Every structure is written in C-alpha cells, then in structure tokens.
Hints:
Layout: E1 3-6, H1 11-19, E2 23-26, E3 38-41, E4 53-55, H2 58-65, H3 67-76, E5 86-88, E6 91-95, E7 98-105, E8 108-109, E9 112-115, E10 119-121, E11 134-136, H4 142-157, E12 162-169, E13 175-181, H5 188-205, E14 215-225, E15 231-232, E16 244-246, E17 261-263, H6 271-288, E18 295-297, E19 310-315, H7 321-336, H8 341-347, E20 357-359, E21 365-367, H9 377-392, H10 405-413, H11 416-431, H12 436-451, H13 462-465, H14 469-480
Protein name: Phage phiEco32-like COOH-NH2 ligase-type 2
Pfam family, one: COOH-NH2_lig
InterPro entries: COOH-NH2_lig
Amino acid sequence: MSTYLLHQGQASARRLVKRVPGLIGIREVRGHVQSTDRLIRYVGGEEPDAGAWVINRRAAFETASQRKRMAERLKMTGVRLPKYARSARDGWQAPLTRHYRIPVFGLRALACFRTDQKTVWLSQRVREVVDSMSEIPLDFDEQAGKVCQLAVRATHALGLEMSLVSIGVTPRGMLVVLDVSPAPVMQGRILEVFAQAIHEWIEQRETAIDPARILLGTDLEFMLRGKKGKMVLASRFFPLKGVVGCDDRSFGGDRMKHPLAEVRPAPAATPERLCENVRQTLYEAAGRFPHEFPQWIAGCAPFERFPTGGHIHMSGVPFHGRLVHLLDVYVGLPLMLIEDPMSSVRRRPRYGFLGDVRHKPHGGFEYRTPGSFLVDPVIAMCAFALAHIVIHHQQELVCHPLYEDEMTRAFYKNDRDTLLPMARAIYSSLRRTTAYERFQDVIDPVFEMIERDEVWDENVDVRDAWGVREQAESRARTTAS
Length: 481
C-alpha cells in the first residue's frame, strides 16, 4: 500500500516528495499505482485517477483550475463570492478590510495567515502566502474560526481535499471566497504544514480502528408550535443547558429569546443504545410538559427562516476526507431523499450542505448534513445505523460519485428522479455489508420510502412519534393519585 504524488516536475512537488517519508513522486499512473494504493494529484491533465483513494480527483482539479467553473460550483453549493468587485486598468479588484489564506488538507485547516491589506487583485490565481501575511492560531478569535470553517467548506464544495483557500472580509463584515488553488506553491511554512499533514495521513492508514473506543452521539433540534400554528419560543420552556435545552441561535437579535430546542442524549457505543437514550431523554422532558400544546415539531424547517438539523457525533474514529464522502453518500443522501422537499430546499444550501462537519473540543466531530430526523424513531435509528456502518465498514463501501456536478446540483434541488439510481446503488452496497442484517429492520423502511417517493411527516408531534407523551401523561396521573 503505497502513496503517490502525481506531478509534472514542478519544484513545489519535488520539495514535497523530498520532505515527506513514504511519498513517491510519479509523472504517470500506469505501471505505478495499484488498486490498494493512494494518489494525491498535484496536476490535472489526461492522467487517470487510480488507486483506492484519490485526493484532488481529476474532475475536481480541472474545475478548481478554471475560475469561471470554480465560481459556478461554489455558488451552486451556497459559498459566498465577492459581489462588488470592480474593473480596473490592470484587472479586477475586490475592496476588503482583511484577507486570509488557509492551507487545507484532508478537510482540515492546517494554518491561518492574515493581512489587513485593503484590496486584493483578482486578475491572477492565488497559489501562495505572501510575505505581508502573518500566521495566527486557528482559534485566534471568532472570525478566524469562521474563516477556517469556510475554507474547508469551499474545498469540499469543489470536490477537493488539498488546497490553499483565499478568503476576504468585506466592509460589511461578510466572508467571501476569493480563490481556491488545488496546487499551492510549496515553500516555507506552507511546505511545512502540508508535509506534516500528508505524513500523518500516511501514518493514519497503518493505524487500526479500535471498536471499543468508538462512541456515537447526537443532538436533534426541534421547535414548538402553538394552537394557532404559530411558533412558540423554546426559551419560554427550556433552559440553555441540559439534556433538552435551547440552541444558542437567538430571535430578533435578543440573546434572551431562543426559537430552537434540542435533544442532547448521552452518547453510546451502539446505535440501539443511542436511540434508546434519545427516547429516554424525550420521556423525561415530556414528563415536565405533558400537555398537547405547544407541539414539538422537527424536520428540516418547521417554520420559514428556522432550519433544524439532526447532528451525529462520532469520537474514536480517525477523521479523513474519504470518511466525509462516505457519510455524504450513505447518510446524507438517503435521509435527504425522505425529507419534506419544500423545507429541505429552504434549509439548503445555507445549512445542511454536503460535507457539513464540525470538529469538537473533545476530539471527535459531528456530521451536520441531515435535517432533524427526530420526526420518527425508525428514521432516527436508521440514521445512527448508517453512520455505524460507515465507520465500521469504510473499506468495503463504494464511494458513489455524489460530487459530480449533476448529482450535487440534484442534491441541493431535491431532485429525486436524478438521484434515485444512486440511491438504489447505495442500498445494494449496504446490503453487501455484514452489518446489514443487524439493521435491516430500520434500513429497509427508509429505502422503501425512497422507492415510493414518500417523505417524513414534519407536522407530527415528536412526543407522539416516540410514544413518550402518553407515557408521561400516565405517569403524571399516577403521581397525582
């Protein structure tokens, strides 16, 4: 199992190969890359993709190499671009208050470089970090953290895993992506961080996953609806903290008003235990609020302008780009196909975009692409089961081409007809895993819904869907008597 860097003799590529133990430089694939090997592309061209995994696949590399195609792709996936660039004698320029450049590898930001330069010229592609930029910690401040998240999002939106992302801050404080280079100039600090990341990636492959260390968790958002069908603030009933508490998004700029609540059960080693933890958490919360109204509703966007998500937490799992691809294919896509299409389109692409991942302070990460599958316990159990299969059967699963332009566009438009053949292929891949039989009772109903073009019910009270309100009312009557 070897790791290759495909290049055309560029000095940057030669420096990278020299710096990374175990990285082999090649100028052609034939005769070198075997089915179990991994390939990093530092060049586009006619050489085919090959091996078990390719970083910066040829199609993605070509898209990122052409500014117009890159901009179209980023816009399609909801990434903000400069709106007010103006023409000048020497090209195009964008007025900014600050400018960042972020090297990304394996869908992780490696470093953060910043300058307060007011104007950036866009006539040439950005491939390096200039001397006027200073390196700051990734978590230096809130803006730096958001910039790093946007850099990873833009990289993933283009189907890349290695890039240098240029991001500007407009006079109104908005973050805009100026450029994404799939072949950064490798020198100085940039060479150092990429070499370290690639070395760790090569070493990671040799480390076996310890199933005993893997934990699944979740937080599932929901909202409250009153008798007249209007939104009721969650902060009227729930605290910020706790196993059922308010999401930190505020209403109308008032930090005391929070429209969303979320269920935060204890993590578990198995999907079955996690699903039971969700049920128990709902039961305990419903005991405090057993009345019919306000109703607890979930899905993608129970109320306009208020999207809700179902986030799956994973720890003890080595993070890499292929894992995110598999989560998009085997978790994000099937669940999207049973979401309510109207609310699904309202939620995306601002929220729930492909590859929506956040790393957590405890060392794990959360996958945030699905809507809130709290709507139904069978669907919730299926979501946890699919994540479990992705984690434990990564090497067996096929990475279906969800990141091709047609498929990505269909995902964001909720185009079921285009995506149905891929959904069938995904189902076939799942059926070939040894874990399928264990979870068949929850996987089959979801894929049957996809075949019948059925969607989940966003009007159901989740307390009724999980059978906890009746139990809570019974407990209240028993206590009263």
